[in-house]
Write a structure and sequence with these properties.
CATH superfamily of the largest domain: Dihydrodipicolinate Reductase, domain 2
Order of helices and strands: EHEHEHEHEHHEHEHEHEHEEHEEEH
Helix content: 25-40%
Mean pLDDT: 95
CATH class of the largest domain: Alpha Beta
Number of helices: 12
Strand content: 15-25%
Shape: globular
Strand order of the largest sheet: 3-2-1-4-5-7-6
Low-confidence stretches: none
CATH topology of the largest domain: Dihydrodipicolinate Reductase, domain 2
Radius of gyration: 20 Å
Number of domains: 2
């Protein structure tokens, strides 16, 4: 059995890892850590885990010595030092934060206000969206797990970017996320009276996921890509839906677009290209590792409209981290991730 530890286990992504790993046939949760709740059991913090996982929350150093892999679910700037400790002891690490997502140290400083302190460590890491980049994993001890918005957007745009059909000046991304995307910390805009019965954009043209989105799309297109990205806060607990508008260099009908996407994702279990005429819906991916994509052609304007839906806590965080762990340990990618979305 693979012995896994979760640092930051009481955050939303961390506790989702605890929940999902209970069902993984090849993994045992060997330890969990939380600075805020050290010494308490996880089920005291999250009663849904009572008599399922009552483990006591420890220090992160206590976990490293008894684990094969550490999942770091920490704010940006905190994973580098933990990754260094893990690598020195031969322990693998998957970072669900931002410390190993960006290739450029300058971009990291610009958007996150921090610097890369362990630059050589970044040479030993890889950023991995499994469906698009699994071939880039060559035994690196550290994986940077993608952000939730960038995952929904990259999967939604990859077939178009690889095809060369998208004009350079025309990608607009309108994304909506459930409140869990903001994390467990308190903030005015996620306070119940302010987000309930409300709907609003936030961090317009200034969201930290923008460079990650552009980095991935640029690699897919093999040229520099800039986007207009506007996130919105939905008054729901979980889920992301991204509606993406892309101007095309030639006239492409709906059936041709649909075939492009269906062929591209034909062998991908977790990406479901919906039949023509259907629209992706948050409800249909909830609690699962699926990404649903619907393809639409606006022949009047010469644009493709792509709708991508994921559960931000699963495919956008913990589920994708487990999928990446499966790649690390040469397991089937869907191992421990066979969750069927509920009907309602």
């Amino acid at each position: 059995m693979i012995k896994a530890g979760i640092v930051g286990a009481t955050g939303y992504a961390g506790v989702e890892l605890v929940r999902l790993l209970q069902s993984h046939p090849e993994v045992t949760v060997a330890g969990i850590s939380s600075v805020s709740y050290e010494g308490k059991s996880i089920s005291e913090v999250y009663p849904n885990l009572y008599k399922i996982c009552d483990d006591t929350l420890e220090s992160e150093d206590a976990l490293i010595d008894k684990c094969d892999i550490i999942f770091a679910s920490l704010p940006h700037g905190l994973s580098e030092k933990l990754a260094k400790k893990c690598v020195e002891k031969g322990v693998k690490l998957i970072d669900l934060g931002a410390d190993f997502r960006l290739d450029s140290a300058e971009e990291y400083t610009k958007w996150y206000g921090k610097t890369y302190e362990e630059k050589d460590l970044h040479e030993k890491s890889v950023y991995l969206i499994p469906e698009l980049m699994r071939a880039e994993y060559k035994g690196q001890p550290v994986i940077g797990n993608p952000g939730c918005y960038p995952t929904s957007i990259a999967l939604g745009l990859a077939p178009l970017m690889k095809s060369g059909l998208v004009k350079d000046d025309g990608i607009v991304i309108d994304s909506k996320s459930g409140v869990t995307g903001a994390g467990r910390g308190l903030a005015d805009n996620t306070h119940y009276p302010n987000c309930n019965e409300a709907f609003s954009p936030y961090k317009v043209a200034a969201h930290r996921h923008t460079p990650e989105i552009e980095q991935t799309l640029s690699k897919l297109a093999d040229k520099k890509v800039n986007v207009t990205f506007v996130p919105h806060l939905l008054p729901v607990n979980r889920g992301i839906i991204s509606t993406i508008y892309a101007s095309l260099s030639s006239v492409v009908g709906a059936e041709e677009l649909h075939k492009l996407y269906s062929d591209f994702y034909a062998r991908e279990k977790f990406v479901r290209v919906l039949p023509l005429g259907k629209a992706a819906n948050l409800r249909d991916v909830k609690f699962s590792n699926y990404c649903d994509i619907s393809v639409h052609a606006d022949e009047h304007t010469g644009r493709a409209i792509i709708v991508s839906a994921i559960d931000n806590m699963v495919k956008g965080a913990a589920g994708q981290a487990i999928q990446n762990m499966n790649i690390m340990f040469s397991l089937k990618e869907d191992c421990g991730l066979d969750f069927i979305p509920p009907a309602f």
